[in-house]
């Protein structure tokens, strides 16, 4: 039954359509900056027939907006990002113009239609649908002329609070029970007048999965015996509906296809069997896994049937199920063996529901598995240390130094192969009691500037693991060689080890040999390298400048008197955050998330640096991969005389580094500098002593 009623009074409402055009930017001094984009204006109204409209502009990369109201009654008003402006309109249609201001001069203009009307909502169209993914959830969408929002009364409880949504959007509600409900939609405008719509709607429960079960993880073939799964290789010849008489109990089956993902569907489950294509020994496995979806079965019994000595023996295990969702089940093999069942000749599985011939289950990903794999499936973690801080022995990530011998014949039991794991070269040591890596005796490796040695290991059977560093040029004793053991070994997953070189007594100036030792185990090794650990921040101030003050034009330095700078890190759309900190009594600029940042000098009194020969600054960073410095003369036309950026080559990490760039390298007209910019890789960069000399 449907009822449609209209209540018409004079109401205020707004409708909008929009078009936009981009205005050429006025200033182009930041090469990386973009004009504002995705500019819109949100209209709000007061529901009192006064014609008061609230305009809230918004966009990406904009800092402020000029709002032109379009009715000829007022001058445009400037609105900051996130703020609003109100204006009183007469009834009519207006072209509201929004001019978004971005990075100093770059603007984007949007013209948006505004209709102010004193009418009730009309042409109400309501769509009510059962959600396709969530059981008993209903979605309501409403559209109407002259309406801004709508309330929905879903009709399950009395005195309910309606669910509201904007016109054109969706209001949703999940019922406790399926059934028929009276749903009322009330479209509202700017006054008391409303337009209502009521429909009797059948709320349904979902009786089959709408999404697939989680995809099983990659496993080695030796670690899994699959019965039914698209990820692994199933036992050939398996029968998923053998004739055990269950069809006579009203049970049936199908292979349900969910968007290309197939799964077993057992309907009116009484009992159901699976005849495995061959007898399997699962005594070496640790778990049976399966994923089960159901709307109406509360628990399921799973039995393994073993055929040892020609006699069939089975034992059940019950698992609780969650309605309307996938239940991931992992049953320990011990749940059957503890009942006295042998599992060395399993040839059948059996499922039983908790209601006889009632309810349907969907089952996917049936497999036996070993929780701890026999070998790594994925490669070791990709190192993140900066290459400039690394001396690498074995890693696909870095350039490796010369190593003349791997596992040299020193009487060990160890065998070494290099294996490919997920596209990553990895060292596989078997029967590892000890093994050596000989670098270059003629050109020993100096590690005295490094702070740590790193390697990743993977093992399932090692009870000990140690790493030795040798300097064969030293006499026998502590300075020649020392070994550090890895504590708390973790089995079955990649583990990263970082040993401070301070724990070694070896003289690190001329390393020629490296050794691993273990408990005759199988150990995989990757990413063996030495590195310098970087501080999180500088602990000392930048070097004190020594240039005579008479030869300097200083922008930022405690050593000199600075010229006028009117803005630091002005809002040009950058991610950069600037704070001024003190290091050893010395003020220092700290730029975080530095993509670019500006320093505005004095537009009215540009700085003439044409008489200087260099620009100098000191920087400290532990994560920047790039750093550039730009000089801008905004009085010049667009082109090389207006602005030019020079990149710092060979970024040094973890130490104060002084930069002196010849001003002759810049094409910028140096007689009237008004802006300077730093650019980097969204890094944290400390800057001090910025001056020309």
What does this structure look like?
With 693 residues, this protein is mainly β. It has five domains: 117 residues, Immunoglobulin-like, CATH 2.60.40.10; 82 residues, Immunoglobulin-like, CATH 2.60.40; 149 residues, Galactose-binding lectin (Jelly Rolls, Sandwich), CATH 2.60.120.430; 145 residues, Jelly Rolls, CATH 2.60.120; 144 residues, Sandwich (Jelly Rolls). 1% of the residues lie in helices and 49% in strands. The chain has one helix and 45 strands. Strands 28, 29, 30, 31, 32, 33, 34, 35 and 36 form a nine-stranded antiparallel beta sheet that branches. Strands 37, 38, 39, 40, 41, 42, 43, 44 and 45 form a nine-stranded antiparallel beta sheet that branches. β30 and β31 form a beta hairpin. The radius of gyration is 37 Å and the shape is flat. The N terminus is likely disordered.
């Amino acid at each position: 039954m449907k009822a449609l009623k209209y209540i018409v009074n004079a109401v205020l409402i707004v409708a909008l359509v929009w078009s936009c055009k981009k205005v050429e930017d006025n200033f182009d001094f930041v090469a990386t900056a973009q004009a504002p984009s995705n500019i819109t204006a949100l209209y709000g109204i007061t529901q009192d027939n006064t014609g008061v409209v609230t305009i809230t502009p918004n966009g990406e990369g904009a800092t402020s907006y000029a709002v032109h109201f379009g009715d000829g009654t007022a001058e445009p008003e400037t609105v900051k990002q996130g703020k609003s402006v109100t204006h009183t309109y007469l009834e009519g249609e207006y072209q509201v113009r929004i001019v978004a201001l971005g990075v100093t001069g770059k603007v984007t203009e949007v013209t948006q239609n505004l209709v102010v009307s004193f009418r009730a909502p009309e042409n109400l169209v309501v769509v009510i649908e059962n959600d396709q993914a969530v059981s008993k959830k209903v979605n309501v969408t409403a559209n109407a002329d002259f309406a801004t929002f709508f309330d929905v009364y879903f009709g399950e409880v009395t005195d309910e609070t309606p669910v509201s949504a904007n016109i054109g959007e969706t209001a949703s509600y999940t019922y406790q029970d399926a059934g028929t409900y009276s749903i009322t939609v009330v479209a509202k405008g700017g006054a008391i007048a409303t337009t209502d719509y009521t429909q009797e709607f059948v709320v349904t429960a979902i009786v089959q999965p709408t999404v697939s079960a989680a995809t099983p993880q990659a496993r080695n073939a030796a670690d899994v015996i699959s019965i039914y799964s698209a990820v692994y290789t199933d036992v050939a010849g398996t029968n998923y509906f053998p004739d055990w008489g269950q069809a006579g109990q009203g049970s049936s089956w199908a292979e349900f296809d969910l968007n290309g993902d197939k799964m077993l569907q057992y309907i009116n489950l009484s009992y159901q069997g699976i005849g495995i294509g061959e007898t399997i020994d699962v005594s070496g496995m640790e778990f049976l896994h399966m994923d089960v979806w159901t709307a109406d079965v509360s628990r399921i019994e799973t039995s393994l049937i073993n055929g040892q000595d020609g006699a069939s023996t089975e034992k059940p295990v019950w698992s609780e199920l969650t309605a309307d969702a996938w239940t991931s089940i992992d049953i320990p093999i011990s749940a059957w063996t503890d009942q006295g069942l042998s599992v060395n000749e399993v040839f059948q599985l059996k499922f039983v529901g908790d209601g006889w011939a009632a309810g349907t289950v969907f089952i996917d990903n049936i497999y036996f598995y070993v929780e701890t794999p026999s070998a790594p499936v994925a490669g070791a973690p990709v190192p993140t240390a900066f290459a400039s801080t690394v001396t690498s022995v074995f890693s696909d990530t870095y350039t490796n130094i010369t190593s003349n011998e791997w596992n040299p014949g020193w009487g060990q039991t160890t065998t070494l192969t290099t294996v490919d794991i997920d596209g990553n070269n990895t060292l596989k040591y078997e029967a590892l009691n000890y093994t050596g890596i000989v670098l270059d005796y003629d050109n020993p490796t100096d590690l005295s500037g490094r702070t740590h040695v790193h390697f990743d290991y993977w093992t399932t059977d090692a009870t000990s693991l140690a790493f030795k560093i040798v300097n064969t040029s030293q006499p026998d004793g502590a300075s020649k060689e020392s070994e550090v053991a890895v504590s708390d070994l973790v089995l079955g997953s990649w583990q990263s080890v970082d040993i401070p070189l301070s724990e070694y007594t070896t003289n690190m100036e001329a390393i020629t040999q490296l050794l691993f030792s273990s408990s005759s185990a199988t150990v995989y090794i990757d990413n063996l390298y030495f590195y310098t650990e970087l501080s999180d921040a500088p602990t000392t101030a930048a070097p004190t400048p020594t240039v005579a003050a008479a030869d300097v034009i200083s922008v930022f330095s405690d050593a000199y008197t600075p010229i006028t700078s009117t803005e630091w890190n002005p809002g040009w759309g950058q991610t950069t955050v600037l704070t001024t900190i003190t290091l050893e009594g010395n003020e220092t600029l700290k730029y975080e998330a530095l993509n670019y940042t500006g320093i505005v000098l004095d537009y009215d009194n540009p700085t003439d640096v044409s008489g200087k020969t260099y620009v100098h600054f000191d920087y400290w960073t532990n994560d920047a991969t790039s750093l550039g410095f730009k000089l801008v003369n905004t009085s010049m036309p667009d082109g090389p005389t207006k602005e030019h950026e020079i990149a710092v080559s060979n970024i040094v990490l973890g130490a104060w580094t002084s930069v002196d760039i010849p001003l002759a390298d810049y094409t910028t007209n140096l007689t009237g500098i008004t802006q300077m910019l730093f650019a980097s890789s969204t890094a944290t960069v400390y800057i001090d002593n910025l001056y020309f000399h």
